[in-house]
Design brief:
Blueprint (H helix, E strand, L loop, with lengths): L2 H10 L7 H13 L6 E4 L8 H8 L8 E5 L8 H6 L16 H4 L4 E5 L6 H13 L1 E2 L8 E2 L3 E6 L3 H6 L5 H7 L2 E4 L8 H19 L3 E4 L1 H9 L5 H16 L9 E4 L1 H4 L26 H26 L30 H4 L5 H15 L4 H8 L3 H14 L4
Parallel strand pairs: 1-6, 1-7, 2-3, 3-6, 8-9
Antiparallel strand pairs: 4-5
Length: 404
């Protein structure tokens, strides 16, 4: 496709971004649209898979027919056959009359089956029959009926794995995967796309509610694009709208936009990973709530310190303490191993008795920032923590006035 055609397509369907993977998905959709081939759209939840079948339908010879979208995962297993293929009167309790199913309603058009990996095995067999020869039977009927429907399916699960584990029929898998369109996850796309989407969502939201438009400064943009976005575009939209609702204000003369930094943005970015630590009880809990990222950073600090303590133990036991310098990586407030009974050094928690782990984490961050000239990204990479953890610390220090 020519770039101008591709951009017109994006404008029509309100698609934002210039990522090569996204462009390839759109071009494939337009290319296969004139055929009646079954298409499988794959990708994580929230990447925008629902737009592709709409494009295929509009560029197909069926565009004057019906377009129906069905979320297979939202229909109870006991009624999904009736929903898809219809039922006769009295077919089951509550079937007070005959009802058309989606395959009959969409005759001559396009049927989009989202979350197809959630279909029960029995329904998979019925779907395979429709795909092969267009035949189906209503629930409670023995009459074979015909339909002419273009089926487009989507899934956020690995169907090949589902086949291997017996949850998905192998013959249906091969019938669906003739043409696959992969929608890239947001973290796999061009990083510029993330901020373009953020600006789009905040702009739409601010116009809807007459709020000032929200811009991000350079550091905040770096934080935004460095985040993994496990919920993809759906999560980004929710964050963008929440930021605008809580950080913006009504438009007034001469005041139409605001700019946010990383300290403001990080309040709206959820922690990316669950904590690896057990629930804290006792004295350690008195320090207040601690984020999962901080806990993971402290785990690393504890392990590093334990390695240094073990090394010093070996030196002391070998009688060479006087000749060996203090290791550079050991904080200056770390007690010498000889001050502690040897059996207490078997666990990192015991080796740190009397030391503030918060102070240890602050010290590590300070040293990393000093080493890298105040640059957050390389400092975070060296410590094995997220950039937002360091930004949080910087904001905390600034607020308390303890550090510049």
């Amino acid at each position: 496709m020519e770039m101008q055609e591709l951009q017109r397509l994006k404008n029509k369907y309100d698609i934002i971004g210039n990522d090569a993977g996204l462009n390839r998905a759109l071009e494939t959709a337009v290319a296969v649209a004139p055929t009646d081939l079954t298409v499988l759209i794959t990708g994580e939840s929230g990447v925008g898979k629902e737009t592709i079948p709409q494009i295929i339908h509009q560029f197909s010879r069926r565009k004057t027919g019906k377009y129906l979208a069905v979320n297979c995962g939202a229909i109870p297993e006991g009624t999904i056959n009736a929903e898809l293929f219809g039922h006769e009167k009295g077919a089951f309790t509550g079937a007070i009359g005959e009802r058309k199913g989606y395959f009959e309603e969409a005759n001559g058009g396009t049927l989009f089956l989202d979350e197809i990996g959630e279909l029960p095995r029995e329904t998979q067999a019925l779907l395979l029959r429709v795909l092969q020869n267009g035949e189906f039977m209503k629930v409670g009927s023995s009459k074979v009926e015909k339909t002419d429907v273009r089926v487009i399916a989507a899934t956020n699960v690995n169907l090949a794995y589902a086949v291997a584990t017996g949850k998905f029929r192998e013959d249906l898998y091969y019938r669906l995967t003739g043409i696959q369109i992969q929608m890239p996850a947001l973290r796999e796309r061009n990083k510029d796309d993330i901020y373009l989407l953020f600006r789009k969502f905040t702009s739409d939201f601010s116009e809807r509610y007459n709020l000032c438009k929200v811009n991000l400064n350079h550091d905040a943009i770096s934080m935004l694009t460095a985040y993994r976005w496990p919920g993809n575009i759906r999560q980004l939209k929710n964050v963008a709208e929440t930021v605008t609702a809580l950080e913006s204000r009504p438009v007034t003369p001469g005041y139409e936009r605001i700019e946010l930094g990383p300290a403001a943005l990080m309040r709206y970015l959820p922690d990316e990973k669950d904590s690896m630590l057990p629930a804290t009880t006792g004295p350690a809990a008195a320090g207040g709530n601690m984020s999962d990222s901080d806990k993971q950073m402290i785990i690393k600090a504890l392990l590093d310190l334990k390695q240094e303590v073990d090394r010093l133990k070996e030196i002391v036991n070998a009688g060479g303490a006087a000749q060996q310098p203090m290791p550079a990586g050991l904080p200056h407030y770390m007690p010498m191993p000889s001050d502690e009974p040897e059996e207490q050094l078997s666990e990192p928690e015991a080796s740190l008795e009397g030391i503030s782990i918060r102070k240890a984490s602050d010290e590590l961050i300070e040293r990393a920032l000093a080493k890298h000239g105040g640059k957050v990204k390389p400092a975070a990479a060296e410590l094995g923590i997220s950039e937002r953890t360091i930004y949080r610390k910087l904001a905390e220090w600034k607020e308390k006035g303890k550090r510049a």
